[in-house]
Request: fold
Amino acid sequence: MANDDEARLVAEIRQDFAKRQEARRPIELNWRLNMDFVAGNQFSQISPAGDIEEEGKQYFWQQREVFNHVAPILETRLAKLSRVKARATVRPATPDDDDVASASLATKLIDAVCKENDFSAQLSLANCWSEITGSAFFKVTWDPLKGKAIDGKGKVHEGEVSIALCPPFEIFPADIAVTDIEAQTSIIHAKVLSEAEVEHMWGKRVKGEEVSIFSFGGTESIGGIGYNAMLPKLIREKKKDGVIVIERYEKPTKARPNGRLSIVAGDALIFDGDMPYINGEDGARTYPFARQTSLDSLNNFFGSCVVERIIPVQRAYNAVKNRKHEYMNRLAVGVLAVEDGSVDTDALEEEGLPPGKILVYRQGSNPPIMMNTGSIPAEFAREEERLLNEFVMISGVSEVTTYSQVPANVSSGVAISLLLEQDDTRISLTADSLRDCVRRVSKQILRLYRQFARTTRVKRITGENGEVEIASFSARNIDSEDIVFDTVSEIEDTLSARRAMVYDLLKLGLLAGEDGKLSTETKTKVFEILGFGNWEDARSSDELHVKKARRENLQLESGDVDADVYDDHTLHIAEHIKLCVSTKCEKDKAMHDRVTRHIAQHRQLEGLGASEDAMRQRFEEEEDGREGLQI
Reply:
């Protein structure tokens, strides 16, 4: 009976997947068309049969060159998006030391997970998918096979957070018209894996089948009189021994308060149960996806993009340029008028009228003459200029950023600054979506650690400047519900702008202390803002002592720590007093006593050092006195 239920569930999920494929087909055709235009295959079109077909030549002499303006516009937008600082910093909910420590730990964990998953490279690829198709997705899951082994045989691991980029071709929502990912009743994530991959991931052997996939292949598509060129084109191929893995996530309901996850590989049911991750607000279970869009759409879950908007302009521009070049070919090659029977037309057609050619024509007939084709109409140049302006208007990318040159009619520095500011304003909507996606990914990272990092674990964390530290933490040290995520955009905040701002602050004296001098910590921060990588790695001895004191605070939570003679006792005592007056120390009397004893050791060593300095000074004074008596 159980096998019959599994078979019915597998059939229902595969039928649901086929239904969603058909509903998404028109949008998918637009994605394929966008990819063709970016690659340069710009004579493609959507056929009435529901597929991408190529428009052929109507005449052998027809000019079919591609003058690709889509690619440089896309590259300019991607370059601007790459300047968005996609690093989430966690701010404490209160000034309490516990919240400050939790926020600092959360920030370091997010950075460590992003570096382990090469999130910056994935984000660059996600920007490319988003700008071409309108959307990209990140899947944040817990991988029990990652992390440090906790058994002698190396088969059981601590587990770690895994971040995977999902192209929009793999995501199938229940309703395409619903734009909010949390409002979807269910979401299907489908991908093609090999038989070996399925067996490695779930331990089941599933027989593969022939699966249709998309890939780029060469096609003869462009050229002119006497030559052709090859351009890549998105084509459908057959992959042997492929297994379609369908993961259907269903939103929590009254009947299923924890939601439902069903995984089907081929004709086999791999898993059917509750959603595995507590990754929503207030301890709820939700979809493990974060969506990034280029431009939001009111009635499209996947969003829209600039490439889709400029395709009509690109088609018109190619047509104008090609017709213009055909006119120039007629002017250069010429058009002959020949009386019937007066010359050998086959030889004339093959050889033309090269210089020095002896043309023999029938006696009494008229010789061939070149027809007057006139000059190129001025309307071609005007239409070409209008289309170039439409590229700028629709894409929001001006000549200054696309072609790295100032428009001929603009000479004012203020006007150039306004052009750059307008470009930044148009792309800020896309940058906001990118930052929101990073925020969602960061929240899910911390919530997964809260769910699975129940025992104390140690993690190697690398800072921005290459410094490495070992952090010990568990789920109780992470509180993601009271944390604000903050990301910084560098689209307008360039390095030169930051440097100018710092110079102004230094001139005004706003960074100096009460004595009018810059502290060591302020100098380090100034070097960091100015972008001097070698200098920002330099750490003062004061900062090293403060970090050592903070490490001792962590050790004092579980046991006694002895003070060292070489410590800067003033700095250490200040850091230990912060721990001593915290709520954590007030609740734990044993820890309070340990911290108090440690502070007493510092004061004792500090007094001993002061007495040694006094004795040394007295001895030096006595020596000076003896030398004076001898003289």
Summary: Residues 495-630 form one domain.
